[in-house]
Design a protein that fits this description.
With 308 residues, the protein is α/β, with parallel strands linked by helices. It folds into two domains: 3-247, Rossmann fold (3-Layer(aba) Sandwich), CATH 3.40.50; 260-307, no CATH class. The protein has 14 helices and seven strands. Strands 3-2-4-1-5-6-7 form a seven-stranded parallel sheet, sandwiched between helices. Helix 2 (11-21) packs antiparallel against helix 7. It starts with a helix and ends in an 8-residue tail after the last helix. Bound molecules: guanosine-5'-diphosphate and magnesium ion. Guanosine-5'-diphosphate is lined by residues 53, 55-61, 192-193, 195-196, 223-225. Magnesium ion binds next to helix 4.
Length: 308
Amino acid sequence: MPADVKHFAARRELAQAISTVERPGAAANQRIQVALATSAAESRHALVVGITGAPGAGKSSLAAVLADVARSAGRRVAILAIDPSSHESGGALLGDRVRIDEHPDDEGRFTRSIATRGSGHSLAYVTAAATILVEAAGFDLILVETVGAGQAEIGIARLADVVLVVEGPESGDEVQAMKAGILEVADIVVVNKSDRPGAQATFDRLRTGLALGAGAPELLLVSASASAGITELLTTIDEVGSRRGIRGRIRRVEAHLIAAAEAHMDAQVREATASGALTTRAEQIVAGSAPLAGALSDLFGFSEDSDA
Ligand SMILES: Nc1nc2c(ncn2[C@@H]2O[C@H](COP(=O)(O)OP(=O)(O)O)[C@@H](O)[C@H]2O)c(=O)[nH]1
Ligand SMILES: [Mg+2]
């Protein structure tokens, strides 16, 4: 085993490496580069599953039982819980921290919460980096839990090999609302809490609502707390994952770069807004004293080529 693999194999080291990439910069890039080299040397590919859906749908519970099933099949499983709001509420993060200690002696498990004070973009940036590190540490299955909140979905869809959307039985009209957004990025839609009344009705409504045929997501009815349908779910995840092929790591680096570019752009826009440069230029354009052409390069540093 190469030294780097040993280095990343220890969960404590992995946790520290993730802390490093939580602060973008040269040290973070160095860590990511080492991780990619480690993975390439081992030619290992992890299966990254994005788990999304409304709060309370059962994402954390599902991730936990999926991890149990995969772990008992001998797979090394990591759970990354992404929660943009957790630093405000404290609740979800605390819950996830409790889970970290559930398997303290099992080197085949890793759980980590990721919460940054930054924008959705920086969260996507850190998540992509963390996933690359976890893969390098030899985890086969990486479950990334995120909240169903627009920005996070786009990030997770770019990053993950398989996107799982979790619905609760009480969704009702929300199911319709979600169809417009989250369901579009779903590879698999799971109606959770099949032990509860209403789950079957939600499942039926979704089956009718989702266009069946090419491109339509898989639809499953499960119960995380009763551990019903979980083996089937894992099989479906693996099937969808294998259809995707082994481009996963490239996709994760792409997601990382896109998130970095978006964060950079965001910062430029904020700066131009705060400094008044944006307003000044807009006033000049309206008054005819400055051209529209070139405004993007003047304000945001775009090259003239992309400024057409
Ligand atoms: N009855 C029932 N409750 C569940 C099931 N899965 C999760 N729950 C409960 O639903 C609540 C929210 O679950 P959680 O996993 O934290 O949802 P998340 O916010 O999507 O991560 C918790 O009280 C869980 O115990 C299930 O299959 N059946
Ligand atoms: Mg949760």
